[in-house]
Amino acid sequence: MAYPPSLPLPEGIISSYVDCTSVIGLKFHILTSGTNVPSNGLLLFCHGFPELAYSWRHVLPYFGAKGYYAVAFDQRGYGRTTGWDERDYAHVDIAEFGPTQNVIDVLALVSQLGRSHVDIIIGHDFGAVTAASCAMMRPDFFKACVIMSHPFEPEPSMPGTGEIQTKGDPDIHRSLASMERKHYKWANSTPTAAREWDHPAQGLESFLRGYFFLKSASDQRNKPHRLESWTAAGLAVMPHYYVPKLDYTMAETVAEDTIGQEVSSTYSWLPDDDLAVYVQEWTRTGFQGALNWYRNRTIPNPDMRLFAGKKISVPTIFISGMQDWGNEQKPGVLERLPEACEDFQGEKLINGAGHWPQQEKPVEVCKEIEGFLEKLKG
Question: Which pLDDT tens digit goes with each residue over 231-267?
């Protein structure tokens, strides 16, 4: 099989592969900066959707130059990491994309790198779910945690069923449908979702440019606030990219909601050459592997009852964009972070950043993580 083309990486970043096939069946694609020696603390970066290890391109060299070994990896189902279940929607083992397997994946990767622990695990969006799961399940291995753009919430008390159990309307989807709306996580879990993401009418480049724009601070309409309730009326105040019109695909949502908008304002933080990487990779792989994460999170997961009510015990901070609606997807979840994390050391909402702070405001993100590192050193 031919290797994909080289990535346009900034100076100081190396692309390579870590073979974990004998342990978990995966061959990870990683981006690294710095030297892998025991004296250099390991910082592990987990990306979200629809992103890649490449999303950390501005952050990795900063910490590599500071004497750390900074590593970002394409997660299971994403980018250049291979070996995950590529069977079709009806036959794929969806458990392979769940939280416990995500943690096992990270343990295998880090062990193959020759490390016995991670100094800080940093995760954004779905990567924040990975990072929080790692810190919550294995505090002996992951010494500290940075959660970005997706606040952590402990598994509900017995007999919890994961993300789908939330206080409020017990039939939220029927209620949303009555308002001609739907929730994006469940929309991304349907049999048609991958085809809709793979083949947007406006073309993948225009679709992704618009999607990144709508969830960023470049779209000045993003003025998030706390939701009043987990009800259809409560959720309906969010932008369409979180609660689309009932009969719209995400591509149709993006096309309609970017009409008349200055989408080109994203060029300052997402130039064409960088966007082309995402277009190239998603064209090559398709979206089904990544969308399987949504499928896993929107069905009951009995295994997670093992962690019912369990909090994160290691030192933790939260970083996000001030203009990010992702902070407010669940009513009050941001405000409950100090309760969910036993050693919560603060939050920083960066003005001028939306849902992609490590791309929109990378210097500010680096400074916040660096400040956390210094605080941990005492």
Answer: 999 999 999 999 999 999 999 999 999 999 999 999 9
Domain count for the chain: 2
Q: CA of 33: how far to CAs of 37, 54, 82, 243, 364, in Å?
A: 12, 12, 22, 38, 19
Q: Are strands 26-33 and 14-20 parallel, antiparallel or unpaired?
A: antiparallel
pLDDT digits (tens, 9 = 90+) for 23-38: 999 999 999 999 999 9
Whole-angstrom distance, CA of residue 290 vs CA of residue 330: 22
Burial (CB count within 10 angstroms: exposed 0-12, middle 13-18, buried 19+), residue 325: buried
Q: What are 303-323's pLDDT values in tens digits?
A: 899 999 999 999 999 999 999
Is residue 298 in a domain? no
The domain of 208 spans 162-293
> Quick check: is 35 in a domain?
yes
Phi, psi dihedrals of residue 269, rounded to the nearest 5°: -120, -10
DSSP assignment of 202-250: T-HHHHHHHHHHHTSTTSTT------S-SSHHHHTTS-TTTS-BTT--H
CA-closest candidate to residue 13, choices 33, 38, 41, 35: 33
Predicted model pTM: 0.96
Within-domain flag for 36: yes
- Helix, strand, coil proportions of the chain in percent (round to 5)? 40, 15, 45
340 and 275 within one domain: no
Q: What is the mean pLDDT of residues 285-305?
A: 95
The kind and range of the H/E element at 185 are: helix 184-187
